[in-house]
Amino acid sequence: LTVHSQAAACEELVPGDHGREILAACFLSFGEKLALVTGSEDTTVMIGEVNGLAVRNRRIVQTHIGSVRALAKRKVQDGFLVASAGSKTEIHLLQIDENLVVKHVA
Predict the structure, then answer these.
(1) CA-derived radius of gyration, the chain
(2) Closest-CA residue to 27 (of 8, 42, 47, 13)
(3) Separation of alpha carbons 94 and 6, rounded Å
(4) What percent of the chain has pLDDT over 70?
(5) Cα angle for residues 40, 27, 52 (degrees, 5° grid)
(6) E-state strands within the chain
(7) Per-residue pLDDT at 14 exceeds 60
(8) CB-count exposure of residue 87 (10 Å: 0-12, 13-18, 19+)
(9) Which tens digits make up the pLDDT trace of 21-63?
């Protein structure tokens, strides 16, 4: 994963866990804690805690049978609902709490 910043030159980080191109991403803000959700051509959704310029404590969700092309989020009382949509006309709904516990809702 390479991060580009206007404040600093390009900095190389630890290798990402996706096996193919990342097609969608969104941030989830839990007060002081920030999480990054990514969807990939490799059919996985990843959720990780942002710590500085690194993403740690990754959770990998493998429910799609085709590439994940879009992510949408909505804040709810216990965290966030994240919808992931992909090829093969499928949509999955995940519930993610502030401890990054992931529950497949639909």
Answers:
(1) 14
(2) 47
(3) 33
(4) 85
(5) 100
(6) 2-3, 11-12, 22-30, 33-40, 45-51, 54-61, 68-76, 79-86, 90-96, 102-104
(7) no
(8) middle
(9) 889 999 999 999 999 999 999 888 999 999 888 888 888 898 8
With a CB cutoff of 8 Å and minimum separation 6, the contacts of 82 are: 26, 28, 37, 45, 71, 72, 73, 93, 94, 95, 96
Q: What whole-number distance in Å separates Cα of residue 51 and Cα of residue 34?
A: 8
Comparing CA positions, the residue from 59, 60, 69, 73 lying closest to residue 90 is: 69
Q: Model's pTM, two decimal places?
A: 0.82
Residue showing tokens 């965290």:
79
Residue 93 has a CB neighbour count (10 Å cut-off) of: 15
Residue 63 Cα distances to 7, 30, 47, 93, 102, angstroms: 38, 24, 14, 10, 12
Using the structure block, give the residue that is written with the tokens 């002081």: 32
Output the six-digit token pair for 86.
């992909």
